[in-house]
Amino acid sequence: MAKKFIKIKLKAYDHRLLDDSAKKIIEAVKEVDARVSGPIPLPVERTVYSVVKSPHKYAYSMEQFEKKVHKRVIFIYDASSETVTKLLKVNIPAGVAVDIKA
């Protein structure tokens, strides 16, 4: 039989907020005595936008803006229904996207 686990993917623009959220999730899961692997940092998704400063003159003068999306993955093994209820009660701050897959 295949091993069952819960995969939690976290995404945010601010890495400090992301690390605090991951710490809260891990503490909640360890209270229920489930095995935890993570947080595993994933590559940062970086998007760069170049915008012309002036609409008419000096088109070669451009501004660059960048957007970074930081990601973490947490695996939870030997999860029970009690583990899931603890996960749902964790208070995650705004700005952190959470994707849970069983």
Automatic annotation (TrEMBL):
- Asked whether the keyword Ribosomal protein is assigned, the reply is yes
Domain Small ribosomal subunit protein uS10 stretches: 7-101
The subunit field of the Swiss-Prot or TrEMBL record says: Part of the 30S ribosomal subunit.
Function of the molecule: Involved in the binding of tRNA to the ribosomes.
Q: Which GO terms describe its biological process?
A: translation
Q: In the record, what lineage is assigned to the organism producing the protein?
A: Bacteria, Thermotogati, Thermotogota, Thermotogae, Petrotogales
* GO molecular function list: structural constituent of ribosome; tRNA binding
Gene Ontology cellular-component terms for this entry are: ribonucleoprotein complex; ribosome
Q: Which HAMAP family match?
A: Ribosomal_uS10 (MF_00508)
Q: Which family does it belong to?
A: Belongs to the universal ribosomal protein uS10 family.
- Entry's NCBIfam families? PRK00596.1, rpsJ_bact
| InterPro entries the UniProt entry points to | Ribosomal_uS10, Ribosomal_uS10_dom, Ribosomal_uS10_dom_sf
Q: Which UniProt keywords apply?
A: Ribonucleoprotein, Ribosomal protein
Q: What's a Pfam family in this record?
A: Ribosomal_S10
Designated name of the protein: Small ribosomal subunit protein uS10
